[in-house]
What we know:
With 526 residues, the protein is an alpha/beta fold. Helix content is 27%, strand content 27%.
Amino acid sequence: MEMIALSEAALxxxxxxxxxxxxxxxxxxxxxxxxxxGRRPEAVAVIxxxxxxxxxxxNGLANSLAARLRAAGVxxxxxxxxxxxxxxxxxxxxxxxxxCGATYLPFDRTWPDERLNGIFGQADCAVLLADxxxxxxxxxxxxxxxxxxxxxLDATAENPDLRVRPDALAYIVFTSGSTGSxxxxxxxxxxxxxxVFNARYVNLDExxxxxxxxxLSFDAAVFEIWGALLNGGTCVLYPADFLRLSELRQLxxxxxxxxxxxxxxxxxxxxxxxxxxxxxxxxxxTGGEAHSLRHVERARKHYGNGKVVSVYGPTECSVFATFYPxxxxxxxxxxxxxGLPIQNTSLxxxxxxxxxxxxxxGEVCLAGPGLSPGYLGMQEMTSRKFVEYxxxxxxxxxxxxxxxxxxxxxxxxxxxxxxxxxxxVNGFRIELGEIAHFMNEVPHxxxxxxxxxxxxxxxxxxxxFVVPADKACTPQACHDHLVAKIPGYMLPGxxxxxxSLPLTGSGKVDRRALLSQRRYQDAPTR
Length: 526
């Protein structure tokens, strides 16, 4: 246990933002889903293309598959790997694992075998649920692979006679690690329950219709699936692996979607290309990276105040931790706030062992039942990132996010970049987020991404990638704008034009892909 120093001013602002305690069921995903199915058996639970599954059928199919898992030796506390294409079978498989009291581990079949074997070993996973399309059968030695085929399942009505504790592990997500070894982040049932019950950031009830767009290995899928199913709503499965705006438009209109989560990059593309796609949606949640104020303001003007809600949260805090509804113009702001804590979540700004007052920049730390118990098999990192403190006489377990931010006077938190986003170029310390902010102000820039690259000599160079809004956008024009905004040592050594910013499977900008397609003739002379 450690002590947090605090002043009255610091304590006042944190008391203002942390009154988030609210009621949520002290039950697991299993019990809550089964209750929803019993309450609304004929309501539509899942839509996939032309197929609709009612809660009664979905629950029965999951019971049938759960029986097969138990027959294969799966017991409470086991970890089951999950690689099923986006389909009703994917949802049935998730539910079946949960109904066994086991933990689901989503994995991408395109990952290298060496990486996957390492993940399975870290998670002590010996059973995989897959479908024919994933090509997993026979690929991994010493792994039991069960295929998901709804056609051979009976819609068994009886739920497994098993109660799962709220503090049991629901799922594990692996994130990239700074050492190159993936980090396994386990999340408890109560972390998900606290996310989707009595939500402050979006309306979730039996009328909720939520598109499922994210890969299962990206934790936004947790919100999309459980946010609908635990509340008796409808989960709409996007029918393809890769998203097309025309298809998204049809899906949202045909199903009457009420809320959608979009990564920042995808949100920007929609605002640029066809904002009308989202006209019928009640709430547009967006997050994952720092927002472009230009795109947020354009969206606010198109949709009106309050429809766009910025959400922020690391995997270690069960998907979302804060929210900021855009209720007014963001022009003139330095950055879009990440906002206030969601229900049953607390946030603290800490620097040098002390709580920060309003306006003071420190590390964003999170607390509450959404926190992971820690990283799998990484005790040293867990003890460094998850720390118990005495704050104002209360024992509080904080997760150190590595993000920097400060509280405004109104309590809203403003993100200020990563602690490890600071780089050295020619001996100077540079915040890449600051360069990106000014690059996005260039009149003819639609989107931009700023990173660093390393020369053969080991010297770092700042590299900017720009999606032009029109032909007036050139590397030299961008350079000339930045000259008036930032010191010379912060100017990008390379500025490259590109047709679009490629995205990873989790919807974030693909840095490696950008660096591999650089066109050196684009770079301005310095």
